Amino acid sequence: MTPTNLPTASLALVALGDFLQFAGDNSAELVALTVEHFVIIVQAIAAAVPIGVLLGVLITFDDRAATGVLWLAGVMMTIPSIALFGLFIPYFGIGKPPVIVALILYSLLPVIRNTYVGLTGVDEAAIEAGRGLGMTRRERLWRIQLPMALPVIMAGVRNAVVLLIGIAAIGAFIGAGGLGVYIFDGIHHAKTTKIVVTTILLSGLTLAFDYGFALLETYFRLRNGEDVELPRGFGLVTRG
Known about the structure:
This protein has 240 residues and is mainly α. The chain is 80% helix and 0% strand. It has one domain (41-239): MetI-like (MetI-like fold, Orthogonal Bundle).
């Protein structure tokens, strides 16, 4: 019986066996590429969060500035990643630097927007209470508004990270490394197994980041006294 005449279940088992064998044979390199991808994302988001939060705070003081900054951040999201990487190559060279700078710019919109929405959406009664206690505007910002807006800000960071993981894979096209290396090599040599296994790893990395930030978002909501549904494993994390 030829492979094309095998039952669907048998074909699936054969494919699964190929995927597992490939993952086992290349486990060391897959782990190294996953770690490299992880580091790229962490570097980009570590720079983007303070920049985005600062801009989000500043635009709460001027509605016209808010409109302009959010519009510019939105325009940045429309630029194709390959084009943006290419624009930065003359200034940052080939490899990780242009990719990390591009990822920072891509992640600004959700962080800025959620910071702005979170700060402007704080209950006015809480702000008035701070004003009644003699707090300055800066004190109200740091002691009332930012703590209450943290869950919304964290949701923006969560969205940014999920977006960046996929875009970072394209960075392998200009030598940034990460899991995109295997995807481009698989496409170039028509190796479906290589593409599928790497895509599964990318999806797993995305889910891990998303779940981690979901836990943080839930923690901040609970700290603010909100009634939220706890994600699985939250009790284990908080006890730890």
